[in-house]
Structure formats: structure tokens, C-alpha cells
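Onboarding guide, step 5: your first structure request.
Type a short instruction followed by the sequence, for example:

Predict the 3D structure of this protein.
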Amino acid sequence: MEHHAAHFPDRFAGTAAMNRCGVITAWGGSAQELLGYDADAVIGLPAVELLTADADRPKAAAAVRSCKTGESVRGELTARHRDGHGVDLLVRAWPVVTESGSDWLAIFVGAAEIRRWDTDRAVVDGLFEQAPIGLAVFDPQLRFLRINDALQEIHGIPRETALGRRLSELFPGPEADRMEAGLRRVLETGEPATQEHRAPMPELQGWRREWSTTSFRLVNPGDTVLGVASAIVEVTERNRARDRLVVLNDASTEIGTTLDVTRTAVELAAVAVPRLADFIAVDLLQGIALGEEYVPGPVGGGAVLHRAAIRSVHENAPEASYVPGALITFHPATPQAHAMATGEAVLLPTLEGSEDWVAHDRHRAEKMATAGVHSVMVVPLRARDVTLGVAHFYRWQRPDPFDADDLTVAGEVVARAAVCVDNARRYTRERDAALTLQRRLLQVTTPQLSAATTAHRYRPAGSRTGVAGDWFDIIPLSGARVGLIVGDVPGRGIHAVAEAGRLRTAVRALAQQDLSPDELLIQLDGIVSQAADDEDTPGAPTAGIGGSCLYAVYDPVSHRCTLACAAHTPPLIVEPSGRVRLLDLSSGPPLGLGGMPFQNTDVELSEGSILVLYTDGLLRGTSGRGDIDAGLDRLRRALARPHSDLSHACDTVLDTMLPAGGADDAVLLLARTHALGPDRVATWDLPLDPAIVGQARNLTTGQLTAWDLDELAFTAELVVSELVTNAIRYARAPIQLRLIRSTSLICEVSDASSTSPHMRQAADTDESGRGLFMIAQMAERWGARYTLAGKTIWAECAAV
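The system replies with C-alpha cells like these:
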């Protein structure tokens, strides 16, 4: 039987006592669990009877002889289990002197369990001696019981100094307290935990490195808590790579959310601080925010930059040399000027050797020194080979200097921001051009009208969506009438604005022919269709196809308003009582489909009614996707308030409907109707008799005297005489003469003929043909309009 120095763990040991003859006298411990026999079954039996192999019997006899000599022995035997199978045991026996003589005591355990226990110890010892990661064992008071060489190298404290002491004793400070609190939670809850941390003290080797510690509680087979074990792995590079990916991911989602140059610079600053730097300044060339064009290539010295954005880990950025909005120039010796001149980024891990720069930039140098800046990166903003500005990054709170990896990340982030800035600059330039074109083409003056008082507002879409093709106009018509029109061209940008201006010009020309609203829309539809057929520019938007339009003509004499609609939002009418109602119109198709009819709708408006025309951008709200019906309800409520001043009413409606601006252009046109009563209109039916011309002159003179307009008598008599003479000579009865006292004196002669009058140059020998020529010379303007019953020739004399 072999001798061993190792001892057995108590948990698995069985015990037996034997007399000097080898007869079992006592049986206990885990003996029954190991071999299946209870005490009654084995006491009194020779111990060798429990052995299964004959070869083990001599070993047992030798053990007995050894016990008689007083020696302790240990060996491996195979015993017979009660159910018949063999059980390998490790046995240790000691001689015991009793009153009856020399007996002996044996302790035995399962050999497999001992081998596993020995293997576990070997594994643990091997880990602590050879593992490249840090390993530590803490007792229940969180004092170091064991540490390996790797952990000793990590924290730089000798093993002899660390053992028996706590983390907070070795490394006083908040980081050690946090680590110790994590270990205490594991000890109390029994739940394993992983936490990341920096080295607890700056003076430790590699203190800017980061570590991941996984801890678990140690419990013995009797469920007694022995302490906590921890494995420490360095994760510095992993975390830095993750942080770089986070910065790049954030840049892809957070930079360029708008088409605004300054906002894009602010977004770049927000991504960089604090994840990459402690401070950043973004400076753009002065004209970038205005959309100015710059030639490709580097930027020379003396360039004026605009401070677009700053961001700091400190509130209000006290270390900033210049505030946003300031104009800056950089000396050629500075890294900012070098980056813009060469187009290459500049990395300064430390500021050693930067004396030339500091000497020429004292103001910034003093700010940097006060803040404790120790590392700088400067990256030019370049897009499409155009230098747009420069971004410079600073560190002072983070002790590690910028390195090549940081510069790579900064370069990628700034490159994305540069493209977004350039897109915003180009958009700003196009938007400004479109707005300028729109203001020129759609410039609407509010004329002095007898028919209505008008007010209007045009609100362009927000910068994110671009200028659209909404348009409107107020057109004075013959007979003191007024034409009101609103329209919307599909698409955005300069093409849409130009198309809107073209349609507005066409409407003005058609309106001067005194066409009825339905006839005007038919003509306008044809113009749009023809333009679409003629469009042959590849990639250009189809001119006007799908556009909408609403045209209304109000007559203050008859108090009637005639409207025609091409797929446009219906108008509202605010009655003098304050009631707001939606006018039910027969709507035609969108413009440009060609050959489709439009229908007039006639409505009588009380004096003081407000006709409300608008485009759908007013109803769709800030998002541009609002519900039309909900928008109409809001518009009704906004119009239901008392409005004595139409201009104030326009502002109130826009503030209600679009408090923060809209995603689509919006037009609002209000017209409060007036009425020309009998005291301002005189009408006479005239027979088809040449002798009536003189009577027409007398009627005109008498009416002007009644109106106290005798100074216009000569001109008015001549105009009326020529109009009536032409009607009698070339037209058919009935003939009617009407005088209207509006903002000017209007003379009208109507007849039943649809023959169009023409002005011509009469020869010296001609006895006629000078009537319309004379009218054109003496009247402010003149023209003809056609009705179902015939035509009316009209002329406006001087203002009254």
C-alpha cells in the first residue's frame, strides 16, 4: 500500500474502526453512501471481506502489519459495493492505542472524486500561474486572497503588498469605490456581474486603458460563502473601435437633417463633442451660408470665415476664442490656414513645436493655455473639390492625445458634414434664385378698386422642402369688376416658379379679353396642354400638368360673383354676420388634360362679405400631410373671429394655420366686397335711331352735373357720342348706355351684335373710321366684352 501526503476533503469521506485482527468495530461518515452498507451489516466482519480483488488482500494484510508498527499508511483499494459492483477507494489508516490494545482507524473516499478535486486544483493553479488575463480572489471582507502575475502587472502593486488589503485601501478614490461596490453586490446577491472601468488611479501603468471585470461568488459544498473571484480583461481597443463606430453611425443619422448650412455645422459639433473631442469650432467661408459659389481648389491666406458653430464639454464654452457669428481670419502660420491651403488635415498630438503658430495667434493661444489644451486636430471641409471651411478639434479634459485613428474618424465625419454643407449651400442658392424669380414674376400690387378691398399673404415652404409653384393675382376688369385668381403648379424649384409666372401672365392676358371664368380656364387649359406637347427637354418637369386653379369675377353693380374651378380647393365666404360657409363649386379637372369642360358657378354676395381664396398648403399644416377636412375646420374657426382689418385677418389666419411655417407653399387672398348702388350707376335704353346720339350726349352731361363731375363732360360726351354712333351704325338693337362712377368714370354701350370692333387709321379723305381711334386717345383705356346677348364697348375716362 502506497504512502501519500495529501489529505482528503471531509465531504466525501467514510470512516471505519478495526481491531488488531482487522475486524470492523465501527462504521460511519459517508461510508454507507460510498459502499451501500449500514453499520449493522458490516460491524463484526473482517475488513478484507469488503475487498473485491484477491490482489488487494495482501495489501490489506500489509496495512495491518504497518499499523502494528505504528505507521500511518495510505493507498488505493477496490471495495465491493453492496449491490455487487466495485468501488475504487483511497484509504488512509492510523494506529490507535486503546484499552484493549492496538486498534486502527481508517478514512476512505472515492478515488474518482479525489482525482477530480486534484484536477480542479491543478486547473486553478495553472490559471493563476499561466493565464494572460488578470485573476483575483477576495475573501468575504473583499480583501485580496490571491492574485496572479498578470493582475500584478496590470495594477503595478507587488503581490505581498496587495494580499490582505482591499481595493479602496490600495487605490483610494471614486473609481475603486465603484469597483468595490460591484464586488459587494456579487457577494450579497450571488449573481455574476460584469462591469467596465478605467484604471483606478492616474499614476498606474497604462491608466488611460479600460478593463472589463467579470466577478462571481465562491461557495463551498456546505453553502458557506468563501468570497468573490474576478477575471479582468483589457477592452481598451475594443471600446475605442466601438466609440469610433458610434461616432460614424451618429454622423450618418444626425448630420444633414436639414438643408440649412448653419444647422448642419451645429450638428457636426454635436456629434464630435464629447465623443471625440472636448471642444470643436466649425468655421465656414463667409459666403457659404448665403449660397455663394466658390472656385475649386485650396483657399489662400486672408480668407474671411464665419464662425458657424462651437461646442464644448463646458457650459457656454468659456474657452472659445470667438462666438458663433463672428468673422475670423487665420494667419498663414496656423494649422487652420495650412489645412485650407493644402486641403489636408493636420494632427498635433502635442503642442510641442507649435511656437510659430502661437506667436501669430496670441488670442487663441491664451484661451488654449487657460483651458489646458494638449492636443489638436484640424480638418478642412471640402466637397466636390471646393474648400468650404475648416473644423478644429481640441482636447484637455481627456488626457489621451489625438492619434491617427481619431484623425481618420474626424476626417470621415467632417467629409460627410462638408457634403451636407455643400448641398445646403447649393440649395440655398437655388432657393434664393427661385424666391427672387417668384417675387419678380408673381409680384402683386393691390390696386384701388371699387369692387372690393383686398389683402393677401404668400408664405414660402420651409427650407427643407423648397419653393413651390403657388401663385395668385388681383386683376381690375371692365365695368368696375375685379378678377381674383389662385393657382398651384406641381413640383418645386425654379421650374415650378417659372411655370407659375407663365400661367399668371397668361391669365392676365386672357382676363383683359373679359372672358367668363369658365372660358378663361378652357383657354388656360389649352395653353398648359400645348406647353406640355412642346416640352422636349430630357429630364425637365412637364410644364403645369396637374396644376389647379380657381378664378372668380365679382361685379359690384350686380353683387354677383362668378367662379370656375380646375381641381382647386373651394373658397370660403365670411358673411357680414360672421357666419363662415364653404362655397359648393362644380370643380373641373386639373389643368393640362386638354378638351375637358369647366362650369361657372354664380353666387350673390352681400356687401361686406369676405371671399376667401387659398391654396392647399394653408390646410396641410407644418408637416405638409395634414388632413384637408381638419384644416378647413381650423380655417373656419380662424375666420369666424371679427376682422375689421383684412391685413390683420391674414396674419391671424397664418398664425393659426401655420404657426411654425409649413412644408408647402401657402397663399391666402381675402376680398371684402363692396356694392355700387343706384346713386353711382346710371343706365338708359336707347332706340336704334341716329337722332338719339345728341340725346345720349345730353343724358351724359346731366348725369355728370349730378355727380359734380362737370370737368369730365367734354371727354365723356365725345366718348359716348362715338360709342353710340358705332352701335347704331354697325350693331343691332337693343342698345343700352351705362355710366358708372367708380374709381374712374366708366362709359359703356351695349348692343345685340357680336361683331368685334376694330380700330383703324383713317385716310385724310375718309369720312368715317376715326371713332375708336379718338376714344383710344382720350380714354385711359378701352375694350370690349362679350355676353350671351351681344357685346359691350367700354371706355374709362380720368379718375374721379
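Each response can be followed by summary notes, for example: The two ends are 141 Å apart (CA to CA).
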